[in-house]
Q: What sequence folds into this?
């Protein structure tokens, strides 16, 4: 799955995520998207960064930068934030011969700042828009409370993602005797159009996980068949999409999402023997028009929503509890 | 009877011996349409097909088949042997036609 772009050059993961117009489905935000909304700037910033008074010289600021290994120093006095001395300001002071003058005269005062209770997504947008190395963070009372850099963001996201991963893993053994309890697994597979070399690998991985967890063979087979049919469907009929799979609350949920082209007549497409596949697809052993009907057959719950010109979402749910092999 | 024994009796050739090569065959499917194979609700399937593609093996793996015999003496793409090894799926070839292979397997299983 190293190549996640399809032949149209679109990333199927990105292309498949926005829901098509008029189509509703249960949102499954990426952990990262959820994190940058949940985390506030104050959770990520460097709190109480080293600062200097306005009377301190540019040379002293330069020394502070070197010893503290920082590239920007806020200028603060009596809790009032006056400006920020950046490396650029120091270089200009050296070039202009005023390195021994007070920083208040040469600091950057036209600043863009962030408020500490803004979501992290705001900070990311600011970095993208302004191309600054750092932003001062102020409280509602206009007091400087921190500095945020891209490094701070990377570090915080890594820590939070690790925590999230640990949380998910801890839920995998909520009941040692019942492998279907709790959230067991969550996988997402980008599927590219006409990529027959890799088609089937997602279903294969899903089957392996189920075998490792020692689910009954009949259940494994039903889930694997549903996953495989949906994977082949994405490969054959869509412009590329994503197959996601999770086990939660004793149920396996496979969701296939694509970015197009959509199905004109969903009811017709779900009937046995109906297909729009080409001769080439049929020569590969597929396109008999039994895929969706077969997914429906092996699923306890089957949902499909599609709109011509946008995309298709198919959900197959298979209950894991009260089964015997 | 296992796929290895069946292959031996019908004079076919084993290319890859998979992890289910010693599992008794319970059901035989002969098809070139993988969609047909996917609707068969049986255990320990032996798949006879004239389709020589990687997807045959992936389909066989999904339905829990014990192995695949490709008929008509078709030359197999080299990737098929690699995929069979990856999936640990038994892969064999025979020069018999699909019809002849079906009869041969039927006779062998009837005598067992």
A:
């Amino acid at each position: 799955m190293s190549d996640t772009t399809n032949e149209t050059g679109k990333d199927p993961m990105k292309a498949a995520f926005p829901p098509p117009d008029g189509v509703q489905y249960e949102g499954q935000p990426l952990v990262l998207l959820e994190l940058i909304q949940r985390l506030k700037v104050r959770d990520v910033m460097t709190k109480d960064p080293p600062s200097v008074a306005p009377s301190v010289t540019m040379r002293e600021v330069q020394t502070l930068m070197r010893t503290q290994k920082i590239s920007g120093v806020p200028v603060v006095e009596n809790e009032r934030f006056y400006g920020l001395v950046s490396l650029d300001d120091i270089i200009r002071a050296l070039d202009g011969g005023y390195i021994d003058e007070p920083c208040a005269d040469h600091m950057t005062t036209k600043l863009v700042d962030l408020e500490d209770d803004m979501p992290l997504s705001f900070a990311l947008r600011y970095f993208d828009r302004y191309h600054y190395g750092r932003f001062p963070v102020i409280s509602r009372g206009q007091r400087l409370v921190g500095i945020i850099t891209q490094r701070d963001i990377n570090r915080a996201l890594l820590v939070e993602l690790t925590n999230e991963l640990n949380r998910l893993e801890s839920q995998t053994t909520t009941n040692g005797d019942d492998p279907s309890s709790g959230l067991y697994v969550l996988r997402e597979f980008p599927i590219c159009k006409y990529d027959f070399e890799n088609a089937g690998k997602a279903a294969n991985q899903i089957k392996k996980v189920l075998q490792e967890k020692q689910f009954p063979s009949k259940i494994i087979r039903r889930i694997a068949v549903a996953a495989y049919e949906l994977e082949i469907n994405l490969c054959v009929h869509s412009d590329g999409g994503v197959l996601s799979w999770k086990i939660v609350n004793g149920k396996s949920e496979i969701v296939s999402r694509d970015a197009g082209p959509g199905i004109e007549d969903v009811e017709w497409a779900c009937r046995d023997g109906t297909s729009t596949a080409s001769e080439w697809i049929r020569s590969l052993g597929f396109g008999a028009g039994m895929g969706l009907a077969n997914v429906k057959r092996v699923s306890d719950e089957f949902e499909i929503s599609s709109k011509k010109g946008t995309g298709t979402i198919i959900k197959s749910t298979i209950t894991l509890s009260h089964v015997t092999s | 009877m296992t796929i290895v024994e069946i292959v031996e009796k019908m004079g076919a050739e084993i290319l890859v011996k998979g992890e289910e090569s010693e599992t008794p065959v319970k059901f035989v499917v002969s098809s070139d349409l993988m969609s047909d194979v996917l609707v068969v609700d049986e255990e320990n399937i032996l798949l006879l097909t004239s389709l020589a593609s990687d997807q045959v093996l992936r389909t066989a793996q999904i339905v829990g088949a014990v192995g695949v015999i490709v008929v008509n003496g078709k030359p197999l793409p080299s990737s098929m042997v690699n995929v069979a090894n990856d999936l640990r799926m038994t892969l064999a070839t025979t020069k018999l036609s699909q019809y002849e292979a079906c009869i041969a397997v039927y006779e062998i299983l009837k005598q067992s």
